[in-house]
Amino acid sequence: MTPASVVLLPSPRHDSLYLGLASAAARGGTCPRAKVGCVLVSIGATHMVGLPPVRRVLAVGYNGAPRGLAHCVDVGCDLRNARCDRAEHAERNAVYNAAAVGAATEGAVAYVTHRPCWPCFRALVQAGIRGIVYQEAYGEEDPRLVETAEALGLVLRQVVQELPSPAPPLFTDFYDIDDEPSLGDWEAGGTS
Ligand SMILES: [Zn+2]
Ligand SMILES: [Zn+2]
Questions:
Q1: 94 alpha carbon to ligand 2 midpoint, in Å?
Q2: pLDDT in tens, 161-181
Q3: Which of 108, 151, 152, 164 is most buried (CB neighbours < 10 A)?
């Protein structure tokens, strides 16, 4: 199986991981009109037979004003035609963030909390993204996305299952609760 075909296959583990990261990134958004997050993940060949392709996070993005400019949460949205014209969208910010550090986006997959708008879709296509995995619909469906994805052979996949909420604490298995000193022990220990 070539790495290119991997994104065609739903993978609950990777969908959960990367959409979870996108969801976390969305929380950084500074435009109150939308909390959207995007994670760009490269899928490369492995050098060892039998191992799955290597996935790496290239960049993340969320909705917000360009670096150095005032943010909507501080000065309000710049509304033009009922849309905020100050905040850049998460998907394009992810592409720009990758460009800023020279991370190649060719052949990568975009995990997005919401279905991209048409301008973001165009940006992802031009950045060489070959798969878009998103969780939620956003506004009215633009038929150009599906039509263009089919024409270009780009994967556009919605993950409909509910993603797990934030992971339980780590190390639970290694932590013997009986060894934990009780508050009484601490108090009895005093400072001596
Ligand atoms: Zn805004
Ligand atoms: Zn957009």
A1: 11
A2: 676 555 554 444 444 445 544
A3: 108
